[in-house]
Structure formats: structure tokens, C-alpha cells
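User: Continuing from earlier, I have the next pair ready.

Assistant: Great, send them over.

User: Here they are, in order.

Assistant: Folding the first of the pair now:
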Amino acid sequence: MKKVFLGGTTNNSNWRDGLMKKIKIDYFNPVVDDWNESAQKEEIKQRKNCDYVLYVITPKMEGVYSIAEVVDDSNKRPNKTIFAYTLEDGDKTFTKHQIKSLDMVGNMVKENGGKWFKTLDEVVEYLNFNKNI
């Protein structure tokens, strides 16, 4: 069975919970209670070996490493890279300038050969119904 790496915003964001209930393929959730060297090594292994690497960015994002990861993967592994962002996450929202930047990232991912979806429902549809999966 195909497997998707669930990368992107952590920081108490719950986008993964809803997605994991809807997708019909296996997944690796890198969020753990105790982030340690072992967890980091497993994340790197899964990111490399999963059939798809999904990066979902939400307004709860504090660091920018997930943006670097999605661009890196869209260059090195474009056929398995998927990018999406949500406009809201709880009481947090993106500014219009942040949205413009995220759209530019989405275009970059797409131009590199990766997939860019505007909603999590589109991500679910792709993962559940893509004939290549």
C-alpha cells in the first residue's frame, strides 16, 4: 500500500487529525510527544521512503523549515511532492501578504513538477482517487 508523509505545520495544529480520518492510504505522522534524536531520524527516513510527501502550511506555523522542505522535495522528488495551505487554523489567519507568498511557493512547487492543491479536500481526493497510487 502507498504511504504519505504528513509534513508541515505542527504547533498544536489539528489539520492532520481530519486528514488521517479521510485518506485511504497509509501515512506517517511525524508529530510525537517527545521530539528527540530517534524521532528526528525516523522522520528523515520516512520523508525519504514514503511514496508521497505532503506539506500543509497553516497560520499556526512559527518556523519556516517546512517551506524549505517542500521546495527542496519539489526539486529533488517532484513526482511525490504535494503542497497545500489553509487560510485559517483555529483563531489564526494568514495576512494577504502571507497568502501572496504562499501562492508563490505553490507556483514554485508546481513549476518544479510537484502538486499544489488549494484545499485539504483536494488533497484527500488526489490521495484517494489518483490512479497512480
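And the other member of the pair:
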Amino acid sequence: MKHIPFPNKKYQIIYADPPWSYNDRMTGHSFSLDHEYKTQSTQWISRLPLKDISENDCCLFLWVTSPLLDEGIKVMEDWGFKYKTVAFCWSKHTKTGKEVSNLGRWTMGNVELCLLGIKGKPNSWRRDKSIKQLVKAERTKHSAKPCEVRERIVRLLGDKTRIELFARQKTDGWDVWGDEV
């Protein structure tokens, strides 16, 4: 990842899709996604200074795949957040509606998880109690997440200061940080 200065502003909502590096301990195989984007180690991701950009009361939405769930929770804790729940579960499909499945570890993987962690007491922020966890959306560009998730976060928590880390595009109402923006 090329050097991009980390933000120097505080946020109430942080939305992150880190460039996780895969090393499949179960099979002893590793593979690289570096042909798609530059991946980073869990240690590198953990060292990002999220404590410097998160408000005292803050919600973190962190994308992680099932094989890296334990690393995702560890990174969340290293960043100063307490894991609360799976906020969103993205069921991927093609443009024609066919389910997308990738080679899994035990079962074929066809969902991706967005974890919710909190810092402080943002509990009273919840605005819309009808937000669903399951997101059925088309898989487009490699690793691009559905825009619908950002929209659900805003509907859930209201108009708070927010940033997307490892963003691929600029989105109205969101600050962004990443080498693909």
C-alpha cells in the first residue's frame, strides 16, 4: 500500500474493509490476492492508529471473511473496540441472480461478514429498528462491497461523522482513506 497520510480527524462511525492476507493454516496452503490489490498482514492492520481517529463513542463496521473471523475480532480489539455482533451478512449473487460461491475451507463460501464493534456508549444512536442483517446483493468488482451497506449504516445510526477506510470510491457524506480512491 502506498503511503497515504492517515486522517487527523475524529469519527463516530468507522467502516473498514482491510486488505487481509490469507494463509490457510488448515490446509497449509497460502494464496495471494496481490494481483487484485496489495494485501497486508494482520499485524500491519492491527497497528493502524484507529484510536487516534475514533471518538470516545464510536461504532466500527469491519468486513471479514469467515476463515479470518478470529483475526477480525483481534484487530477490532487492538483498535480499541469491543465486538458486539455481526451487523451484516452479505449473500453474493451474479447479475443474473445466481449464488456466488468460492472455494471454502469446509463448505463453499458464499457470504461475507461485517462485524460491529463499539467503543464508549453509542447505544442510544440507533434510529431505525427495521435494518436487516442479511444483504442480498450482486458481487461486482473484486472485493467491492455493496453500496447498500453504507446506506443501512446511516439509516441505523443517523447522520454521524463517518469515514470509510480502504475505500475504492468517494461516497457522498463519507470521508475516505485508501490507495484506490
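Worth noting for the second one:
DSSP finds four helices and nine strands in the chain. The first helix runs from residue 42 to 46.
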